[in-house]
Structure formats: C-alpha cells, structure tokens
C-alpha cells in the first residue's frame, strides 16, 4: 500500500524506516512501530523492512496499525545494511529517520531531528539513545561503553559528530543520491559475528563527497533502546568490544586510519582515563562498583584493541582491504 502523504509546500517530506528480522522481538517491534506512528507532526510515510523472514512479513501484514504502515521485504543481501538500502529504495521522503526494531522513540524525535536538517549544511542528525534494561543494570557497566549496546555513551557531546548511531538517526536522501547506500560488507546479520560500523563508513564517505556538510548529535529528544538480559553480561560486553575492533580494522583500511580512528583517539586518551579516575574515586568513597567499572573500562579497551589487531593482520594476509558499497539505489515501486 502506498501511504505517502501529500507534501506540504516548503516542508521537508519525511519517511520513517524500521528494519526488523526476528519474531522474537515481536512485542518490542510493535511498540517501536506504534511510537513511530505517534510522531507529532506525523511522518509522511512509515515503512517496515523485514530482513529475509517471510513468516514475520506475513504476520505484520495481517496486523492492523493505527496509521498506514507499509511492510516490505528486503531485496538486498541479508543484514542491516541491505535492509536499510531497501528502505531507502522504497521510501520517498526527503529525510529518512531510521529506527531500530527495538527502539521506542519519543513523540517529538522526528520533529527534533528534522529541525536540525532545516540547516542545509546538516547531512544527518542523531537523537539521544537511552538504554532500556530488561533486568537491573549491572553495577560494573560503565557509561563510556554504552556504545556496545547501541546507545549514547559518556564522551559524546551535543553538536557536530563524525558519525551517527543507527538506532535513531535521520539522514537526508541527498546523501544517498550522492554517495550510495550502506556498505553491505558491513552491518549486522542474524546468523554470524557481524562487521559493524556501517553508519560510520557511510558518514565518512558522505563528508568526503559533500565536504560542506556535517552530522550532528541532538540529545534533547531520543529513543529508549531495549537491552535484553543476555546483553547485560561480561560475555556479551567483551564479545561486542572484540567485534568492534574487527570492524574498526576493516573500516580503517576502507576509509583510511585518519578518518576511521579520529574520534577513537580522543576517546582513548581523554574519555576512558577520566572514566577510570571516576571509578577509582568512587571506590575510595566506599562504592565497590567503582573498581568494577574501572576494570571494565580496561577490559573493554583491551578486547577492542585485540580485535583491531587481529582484523588488521587478517587483512594483510588476505589482501582484502575493501568492500564495495551499494552505489546505486534505484527506486522500487
């Protein structure tokens, strides 16, 4: 069903794209769609992309939503990058808000981010992304590593940023017209340890192609990102850090170490040491969790560095330095 609203003159037209893949997320997916439907003002269209799961697509098509929602199956390779590229192809909004299937957005998140894009130099914007813990938050988990859960982390400041975080990000369609879509060689999949950083690679590529442009972080509105119990563990934390190191290794070979690691240098030299000092200070004030957070900061950095070293070594041995982004995204009817 074509649910694109008639555009208002002078107003940026908007699309919300939600990518999903698993029936196990049915309840939170429905909350994410309902939150997208309640945006004020409303989006001109809402598109849900189902990533190679026909049963889930059929189930969604059978459901009645408050507002028209278009259900489309991913026509690109499996994974988040391919699903997003399908969303770009089938939607028509001048601005696209990408939401994760487990992120429940505030009612004004679309309006808040679109206001940022009214400045023609802003290519995209990301909202605050808050962790919504299924269980109690682990006392050892440091705010500086909330990025492992796809959330806003300590050290990320309002204003210009190198890259967006994918759970709640808004991007101009012009960016994709000029630079192509998300790199399908990166991005999460349901079946294998993924190479992430697809948002980072796209943002670096976009600012090279459109040097006048910038991406911004606007935390005055946001989304609650569900964190299941199995992600509130040391095992997942270290595994995710290691995977990030692998991803950054691939990204550094694709985009160059300068762009790929610029933010990480500040993060390692300023944000993490400050976090360790805070943890140790809390320990001295009688809070044992402070020591645990300091240990987690060191362990997370070590796991990330190990993944990065392994990724660079593998690339050197195989000489597989780059993958090819989706350069042309033809509209799909």
TrEMBL record:
Its EC number is 2.4.-.-. The keyword Coiled coil does not apply. Pfam families: Glycos_transf_2. GO terms for molecular function: glycosyltransferase activity. The keyword RNA-binding does not apply. Signal peptide: none annotated. Residues 16-177 form the Glycosyltransferase 2-like domain. The chain crosses the membrane at residues 290-310. It is an enzyme of class 2 (transferase). Keywords: Glycosyltransferase, Membrane, Transferase, Transmembrane, Transmembrane helix. It comes from the Bacteria. Belongs to the glycosyltransferase 2 family. This is Glycosyltransferase family 2 protein.
